[in-house]
Structures are given as C-alpha cells and as structure tokens.
Design brief:
Blueprint: H1 2-6, H2 12-29, H3 32-37, H4 46-55, E1 71-73, E2 82-84, H5 88-103, E3 112-116, H6 122-135, E4 139-143, H7 148-157, E5 162-165, H8 167-179, E6 188-191, H9 198-208, E7 211-218, E8 222-227, E9 233-235, E10 240-245, E11 248-253, E12 259-262, E13 267-271, E14 285-290
Parallel strand pairs: 3-4, 3-5, 5-6, 6-7
Antiparallel strand pairs: 1-2, 7-8, 8-9, 10-11, 11-12, 13-14
Helix pairs in contact: 5-6, 8-9
Length: about 300
C-alpha cells in the first residue's frame, strides 16, 4: 500500500502506468453482474445507482460483494442515499489517495490524529483513519460523546498533531480554544466534508496556528484530490480517471468500486504541471472545482 501511495512522487509516466494497471485490475475483478450493468459508453448518475439498489437490495450492482463495513453516501446533493459494500480491502484502497496528503508532510509514530465525532461523517473519517494509521505510522484517537472541554483535554494529553472533522465542528473547537486562552498548536486540520468558508479558515488558523488540509472524495471513488503544503490541490488521477465534456465532469473509479462515467454534478478540471510540485508530487493540479457541497455547510446527516 505504501508503494501505491508514493507512486505520485516518481514521475508522470509512472502515474499514468499505474492508472492503466489499476484500470486493468478493476476490469479483471468485476463480477458478471457488474459487467452487465456498466456500459462504458453510457453516463451513470447517483439516481441510476439508487434505482438499481431499490430493485436489487441491498447493494444493487455490487450485490455479489461481501461487506465488512457498509458505507452510505448522500452524494453532493445530500438526497441520494447510496449504500456500498466496503470490505477491508476497499477501506485500505480508499485510504491510499488520502495518505498522500499526509505522506508529503512526513508522518512519524509521534504524530496523532484526533477524529472529531467520527459517527457523524464516518465515511470520510474511515478513509482518513486508514490513511493515517493503517497505511502510515501515525496514531488515531476518536471521540464521539464527550464534552468540548474533554475533547480539548484529550488532544492536549495525547499530544495530537492533526484533527479531522467537518468544518462546523472544527469551528466549534477553535472558538472554545480561543475563548479559554488555550494553546494547542497543531500541524494541520483536515476537512472530511463540505468546503471551508474563508471565515472558518481564518478562525482555525488563528486558534491552532496550523494549515488547512483540504480533501475531496466520494464513497464511490475514494479520495480524488488533496491539498499540499505548497498551496496546490493534487488530483489522484491514477486512482480516479476524470473526463470533462460539455462543461461536465465524469468520474471512473480505479481504487474502490468498479465505476464508469459517473456524473454526480460536481465539476473538476485539472492540468499537468511541467515539473514536480515543491511538495514532491508529480500529480496534476486542480484548476477548477465546483460542488454542491459549497452551497451548504450544515451536516446533512
């Protein structure tokens, strides 16, 4: 898995070769039912998958796959309740892309990640936890039902260096830290869903003296892009192929579920830089990103 993580730091050629290997692997692993359903000349939407799951519960097209940790996605619209039969292999695969965001920052056994209320946005938290503790050498600490004072005390006692959560929860912790004059320097705050407003980013930087790590992904595809410490957002193009046509983006998943020409309303455009980023990555960088998540910062779950 660590080898898969670090391919992005080799070269564009290595990334494109890994993309082809992943595409070949996905096609070879497909069940007969999946082969019948997916037509690579057709565009698929969350509504298509929802109807398929209604007709063939509980997993629809993925009905023949075993599930260890079922995962639910509302999609960018917050309306399509889709279920996916994640097993341990899928959890690790989904964590590969997110692990790159941490790996370029140099994670050691001394680093600890605090997962703020993982039950609220468990899909994103699971991916980040897999990246941080199962693939990389860091430690994960979870908290769900404690008070804010207990959460902050736990972070201080365990020398937490990263916190992940939805922006609204990170904002609550930042306000508490400022109001009580607590010094809790972190290396980074990681968003598991919904975009940060400018005001939220300023508040979090002021409270924790750290950078914002922006992750974008889908339960269907795993992590799609991540931000580095050189102000670039890198697209995991070897894990999720992206085709732009008629001002729309279509996703083909290569790391988690077999998924082809998937249109969920989000738009993502990118370009390949001529040389490696200062963080060491050769992945393409985001030039345009639009998502329905930008329109609503409330936790839909």
């Amino acid at each position: 898995m660590l080898e898969q993580v670090r391919i992005h730091a080799l070269s564009r050629t290595a990334i494109e070769e890994n993309q082809q290997r992943n595409l070949d692997r996905v096609r070879a692993s497909m069940t007969e039912r999946e082969r019948e359903f997916w037509n690579e000349d057709r565009v698929f939407t969350p509504e298509d998958l929802r109807h398929e799951q209604i007709n063939s519960p509980p997993w629809g097209v993925w009905g023949d796959r075993t599930a260890t940790w079922p995962r639910v996605s509302s999609g960018s619209s917050g309306q399509q309740r889709l279920r996916f039969p994640y097993n341990f292999e899928q959890v690790l695969s989904a964590g590969v892309g997110a692990a790159r965001a941490f790996d370029v920052r140099g994670i050691t056994r001394k680093d600890a990640l605090f997962a703020y209320d993982p039950g609220r946005m468990y899909a994103g938290h699971m991916t980040i936890k897999a990246a941080f503790a199962l693939i990389l050498p860091g430690h994960v600490i979870e908290s769900q039902v404690t008070t804010m004072a207990e959460k902050v005390r736990q972070c201080l006692d365990d020398q937490v260096t990263f916190i992940c959560g939805v922006p609204r929860n990170l904002e609550k912790m930042a306000r508490y830290v400022i109001e009580h004059g607590i010094q809790m320097p972190l290396r980074g705050c990681v968003s598991t869903g919904y975009a940060f407003t400018t005001e939220q980013q300023d508040l979090i930087r002021n409270a924790f003296r750290c950078e914002i790590i922006d992750l974008y992904g889908q339960v269907e595809c795993g992590n799609i892009f991540w931000s580095c410490n050189h102000d670039q957002r890198h697209v995991n193009i070897d894990l999720t192929m992206i085709k732009n046509k008629d001002h729309k983006s279509f996703f083909t998943g290569l790391s988690v579920m077999p998924l082809f020409n998937y249109y969920n309303g989000d738009r993502l455009e990118y370009h390949w830089p001529e040389s490696a980023c200062g963080c060491g990555s050769h992945l393409p960088v985001v030039t345009r990103f639009e998502t329905g998540l930008n329109k609503n910062y409330q936790n839909k779950e």
